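Take a look at my tokenised protein here and describe the backbone shape.
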Amino acid sequence: MATQPSKILDTFDNPQPQRDYSIRIRMPEFTCLCPKTGQPDFAELLLEYVPDQKCLELESLKLYIWSFRDEGAFHEDITNRLLNDMVAAAEPRFMRLTADFKVRGGIYTLVTAEHRAPGWQAPTPVVLP
């Protein structure tokens, strides 16, 4: 069992690559450090993606998220860095990461970053009567 943070994101083969379907992963315990003060920043991350050939493996994702606990980063930068790493690992059709940073000095920060694979278009939503 791994007990150390890791920058390695593992994947597994998508069991249904012929279908567009969404995966949503909520990570309520993300922490990093303010690069100016060194104080901890707390965020809830919401990852939403449509896999192509690979899916992110959850244990490695947990260890990856943990690896930022002692790193200083601005909210905007860390959100985009996380997304870039996850896109590089999973090569999804679509991926969105929303980072909801908790209050600091009376200010909340919500950062959303997205990736779309070239040529991929979201399916038309079905509206039922």
